[in-house]
Amino acid sequence: MASRGETAVLAAVDLSRTFPNGTAAFRGLSFRIAEGEIVGILGTSGCGKSTLLRVIAGLDRGEGSITLHGDQITGLSPRIGLVFQEPRLMPWLTVKQNAAFGLSARGVSGEERERRVRAWLNLVDLEGFEDLYPKECSGGMAQRVALARCLATRPEILLLDEPFSSLDAFTRMQLQDVLFSIWEELRTTLILVTHDIDEALYLCDRILVLRGQPGTLACEMRVELPRPRPRGHEELGRLKERILVILDLNGHHVTAVEYNL
Amino acid sequence: MTLKSVLLGVLLPVLILLVWETGSRLRWWQPNILPGPGDIAQYMVESVRDGSLLKNIGATVSRLAVGFLLGLGAGLIFGSVTGFSRLISHLVDPFIQGMRAIPSIAWAPLFLIWLGIGEASKVALIALGVFFPIYLNLVAGFHGVDRKLIEVGRVHGLGSLALISRIILPAALPAFLTGVRGGLGLGWMFVVAAELLGASRGLGFLLDYGQNISRPEITLSSILLFAILGKLTDALVVALQRRVLSWQDTLGVAR
Q1: Cα gap B100→B186, rounded to integer Å
Q2: Cα(B8)–Cα(A246) distance, integer angstroms
Q3: pTM check: above 0.95
Q4: Do B154 and A91 touch (CB under 8 A)?
Q5: pLDDT per residue as tens digits for the range B199-232
Q6: DSSP B106
């Protein structure tokens, strides 16, 4: 499944995660992610996609192998960034201090930290809100801060766990555009776990569809349409239809083989 | 607060004072049963002049301060240790929770036997009263830290010490200050108890002294001072809470 022979940033081989009580979240997942790629991991709830992300991030342990630029990853790594579903800001820190959290944790301080935080807050359109506390932020603002906090440390790969799922539809679209414009500027490799098919189709180069409990890889789909993509483009509509069929959400069961994928 | 609500709130106390003063001047009741506000004020002025009132206030406040600091220190140490170590928590917490079932004043006679009738037993009793709310709130604060925030710290590579200083301590601060406020309130209660049990100085001593020499205005003065000082120290803690917890997403912090 190497993508077009490009160098893989992240390679997962035969990843599984079985909880101590015997239930498995996902089983036998192998995939490679190329430099600068945006890969979506799509699946219905319970297919283990969030657990997969936690295993890659090192917050949870799975079986199998994960390599980052060829180095085996066995736990938490400063080279991997993770944005959670909720903003998870420290309520006692201001927007600016929260955005600086990752940098301070890595010992970056003074002028350098100040400069980088300011640049990142600008990039997520939060200039002028530096001194607000999280309680004064809307959900969209808070998630922007969380993005800045993570990106400011310049991870080699950024994992996003349904980052916009708790936002209203309009804010979600705005933040998808924020994420895309950041990617355009930095070309950071992104793995985006989502249950929003439109979101995956709007942003991703490639979509891995997980299905079942435990989750297994049902199919891998490339979205060739150049970005920025018009929302509601008919090509995206066709792909969405296929994904719905694969996820068996249209009410009639068709296997991927029958559908000739 | 609007002017109207202030006026409404003041109305009842002013009415009571008026009736009280009128009643005592017109001898509706015996002044040795209930002296009027004027008598109380007169006693206060006298005792300020001869220096005895300040001496008594000083004695009470210094007892409370020492007892409070000891209780605070013990609460911080035990609370932190049981908050951070599961083993010690299993070992110590059930014991402390059990001890809590004993009303702290019940220890007073034993403290008198062990520590004598001097300052040590009084301070110990106050410290014990202060200890429990601080300990209990601190432990609850540590256990209540949002695991999701801890995960953020771990993802950003924080070690145990950094997790404690950057996430756990600030997150537990509101609960700790709630404990401090409760502890201070109990401290005032216990300083009264300790001084009633036998003291030759202090506001608690004045309570008792007024009764012994049948001068209720002395007792009433003491009660009034307890109210003022208690409210004052509580307001200090509330001001501290407002200052350091301004980030909290609750309606108007604690009132």
Answers
A1: 14
A2: 70
A3: no
A4: no
A5: 899 999 999 999 999 999 999 999 999 999 999 9
A6: G
Choose the CATH number for B95-248 among 3.30.530.20, 1.10.3720.10, 3.10.50.40, 1.20.1250.20: 1.10.3720.10
Supply the DSSP symbol for A135. Answer: G
Chain-chain contact of B157 with A78 (C-beta, under 8 angstroms): yes
Buried b vs exposed e over A68-99: b needs ≥16 C-beta within 10 Å? beeeebeebbeebbbbbbbbbbbbbbbbbbbb
Query: Measured between CA atoms, how close is B34 to chain A, in angstroms?
Result: 52
Give dist(CA A145, CA A151) in Å, integer: 10
Residue of A nearest to B174 (CA): A92
The model's pLDDT over B12-27, given as tens digits with 9 standing for 90+, comes to 999 999 999 999 999 9
Q: Find the length of chain B.
A: 255
Q: Does A88 touch chain B (CB under 8 A)?
A: yes
Of the pLDDT bands very low, low, confident and very high (cuts 50, 70, 90), residue A94 is very high
Which residue ranges form the domains of chain A, and what is each CATH number? 1-79+159-261 (3.40.50.300), 90-154 (no CATH)
- A252 to chain B, closest Cα gap in Å: 39
A90 contact residues in B (CB cutoff 8 A): 149, 152, 166-167, 170
Residue that has been written with the tokens 């079985």 in this structure: A18
